[in-house]
């Protein structure tokens, strides 16, 4: 068949696939001359292959299917596809055999192969003779002659129905886990999220495909989180990251994202599985413990979640590797009731035994807590959640999850123990707590809150007493916040000033979380922090930054280009030579590792400010050279925007000012030396005269002053003996010490010895 066969067939009668027939035997006679030059040997070979095979003409039109395929499709015995007869059909007429939901994908795959001449591969559902559908993996390869001319396409369809069912069962298991679960390809592209993710984030699975999940990560956490994730992908090591994750209502909560690779027997990663656990409460507890309890040396350990299940018919128990680790067994250990009960605390054995028996009967869903007694004598607290379901065949399985909540239990106990110290900790941290019930107006303050607002602790706080203390310029906005949250019942965070009775002004940061008790009454639990010192410091830093930017001039020598989120894009040759790294190495490094430790805080302040308010910035700092030494640089930080005013790039220009710094230090040393020389030349500034006699006296002073000899100065009263003595002292080796003058005439003769040399 020629390459223009598609155009040649345009006028031919199209073949209908519903039903898949071409008419009478006369029709076969009329198209017999169109039989492809494909020998009966090839058709016989395709019929012998234990799979569904087929071939198509260069245009892509399906022309022949083997007997296995024809029987599956339910084609008549005299159908043209059984004999490899070219009926002039369109390139995509076989699409009618597929499930309607698969038409578009299949057409795209096939048209791409026809256009490029490359092999095609795809999965789709094919209708069988009874009208049902089964999943197949189809691959088509081009066959060419010695000149590279395309002769035909040969394809094979492999039944993957069982694999698709297994994938669906895995999704069902993931949906039962009481946490957010995700699945990714070896390159990190996301392929699946469970129902809890959809419920929490308000995003459809399609919206999270590939790297689209990045939209749900807090901007301040994205770079570090993605760096850890990419590092795990590169090394194959388990992934673990704490990150703020956006909820469907737009609020962010802290989560622990943990991912483990699934490997083949030869060690190749085929998929990544991950669990995202809400640790917002743990984060708040950790922060409270850090502020309020000095004896707490270690933050709570990360939460661990494992899956567990039972086949009701066989009573076989299966669990994940994480579940085995929680129970203190090696990953891969086959679980049995005896093995599980061996770890259960003696007081909880009855509870766990009952749960296992109910699971074996396919009982109702259940969740409970129990303890484990580990071989080393330590105790773990475990939370169990399980659900019983039946598959299409009626086989019952119990699927669930176990969570190690030991850290949470320990933290709760620690909080109970530390309540006695809470008030003092609040005082030290200038943070007070409060509770507010908008429905009845009841407000409860801690002692530190009373101190912050300047009220006596005997006063019962009200909304009016709060507003009364707010600075007049902030009062209207504060009242709006109070009105809004009392109506909506949502969490709030607000900063405002207080004007105390003595005229002092305080800066306050308030944050509160809305809760609802069993009776449905709303209550806000929150904290107020006196941030006056921080505000003062911030204002001072802003003032210093503004002054520094005015002092710096752009002098580009090291040129660096970064993205709008400060991702590194380019550094010139001078920068790379100075730092002693390649461009790839530089892109993975942090800017702070290249800055002198004494300059890190100042650089952090500028970077944070540039992220919030992109503008021109300048500062000087010390950058680390490749050999480990530091040199001073003048840095200018300039934003570049597009036509819509959006930030697209940052340019950094760094000029070496080390020589200038050294010149300044040398000038300071020279000034100090000059001042010392001036001091030395002005030793006789109190003695004025040019007569030969006076010059002889001054010469004698210069000779005797550097020695340790005792000097006697004689002369009439008023001739300047004390001035001469002072001049000798200033030019002596004792000039840095005190000069003590004694008027001997004013001391009785009998007391002179005692006055000068002390009493015996």
Please, could you describe this protein's structure?
The structure is a single chain. The chain is of the alpha+beta class and 760 residues long. The chain folds into six domains: 5-159, PAS domain (Beta-Lactamase, 2-Layer Sandwich); 178-278, 2-Layer Sandwich (Beta-Lactamase), CATH 3.30.450; 304-404, Beta-Lactamase (2-Layer Sandwich); 430-530, 2-Layer Sandwich (Beta-Lactamase); 554-661, PAS domain (Beta-Lactamase), CATH 3.30.450; 682-757, 3-Layer(aba) Sandwich (Rossmann fold), CATH 3.40.50. The protein is built from 24 helices and 27 strands. The strands form six sheets. A five-stranded antiparallel beta sheet has the order 4-3-7-6-5. Helix 9 (280-292) crosses helix 13 (406-429). The protein is elongated, with a radius of gyration of 43 Å.
What is the name of the CATH class of the largest domain? Alpha Beta
User: Structural class of the helix and strand makeup?
Assistant: alpha+beta
Portion of residues in helices? 25-40%
Known CATH architecture of the largest domain: 2-Layer Sandwich
In terms of per-residue confidence, which ranges show pLDDT below 50 for 5 or more consecutive residues?
A: 1-37, 294-301, 548-555
Instruction: Report mean pLDDT, rounded to a whole number.
Output: 80
Give the neighbour order of strands across the main sheet.
4-3-7-6-5
Our Rg estimate from Cα atoms comes to 43 Å
CATH topology of the largest domain: Beta-Lactamase
- CATH homologous superfamily grouping of the largest domain: PAS domain
Q: Report the end-to-end length measured between terminal Cα atoms.
A: 134 Å
Tell me the major beta sheet. 5 strands, antiparallel
Number of helices: 24
